[in-house]
């Protein structure tokens, strides 16, 4: 079965990872950008070597306990990609509990998706933006922005639902009921801003980061990337700060237009900060899930050939929500295999 996964973020990576080695599936990923990770994004400095910052996902907060969750966390910990976070380093962060533990991505959050995709052995095609899906009993013809077409047996859309509605045309169109349900899914928008400082500049701070104490603050969260990843007592220099701004703030402006306004807020909140060598704004138009898909079972099957899934289909719009949606989607896809077919994996050989 030829399967197209649209989106090279966490949900797509997890589904491919969960289905790795199932010989009946040949998985291809189309990712519109140059890199994998999606909203688990890591920005690397163009000017200062070795400086990077997570601009989207900050922490993995483990709530769910299922065999697939355990497997995922064990795999990522075993590879050294995630480690437990000491919440005392982050002001105003809710501490963990028996049921809820926080992890950080040691080498940057995009390494999580990258590694899941690598492990899955799927064919990953970057700079492939899906434009349209034309489906019939015969299969689904996917067309990219360049007008190139390829036929698949099954297509999984893992991109934020409002982006699907905005960017992808379906022939025949999505049935009215399903479309109305999809239109209920809402995402927030927000700006991230990264400051990269020159070599050997120590940022004077006693914490690795902080959530805002006041809900009206324009900066809702900030962190020193090196301190978050390696701990406050690391010998590494602190050279990178990332700020997240309030939902919607300046999101009607382009990143270039918003930059001076964002910098003004930083100057007011952190008057002692010197001028950075590089200031990089990033506008997340589809940032986090505000309203998830109503009554979700982890995915929506538009028909036997097109499935929509992702963090708006999980209990929570975060890493664990992706894992939940990916796990339920993987189970569903396995159930599509002919009943008499034994599920054979590469490992059976
Ligand atoms: C600012 C911010 C902070 C966050 N903080 C946290 C946190 O601390 N903890 C947490 O667990 N979660 C957090 N999240 C949420 C977390 O990042 C997401 O839940 C998760 O990354 C979603 O993964 P996904 O694969 O479902 O979607 P995405 O990451 O959105 O992946 C979709 C992919 O599809 C690609 N794509 C889009 N359109 C097309 C197209 N037409 N054709 C081909 N490819 C396309 C995109 O480029 C993207 O790579 C945060 C998110 C943001 C933005």
From TrEMBL:
Residues 99-334 form the Amine oxidase domain. It comes from the Eukaryota. Pfam families: Amino_oxidase, NAD_binding_8. Keywords: FAD, Flavoprotein. The keyword Cell inner membrane does not apply. It comes from Oikopleura dioica. This is Oidioi.mRNA.OKI2018_I69.chr2.g5110.t1.cds. InterPro entries: Amino_oxidase, FAD/NAD-bd_sf, RNLS. The lineage of its organism: Eukaryota, Metazoa, Chordata, Tunicata, Appendicularia.
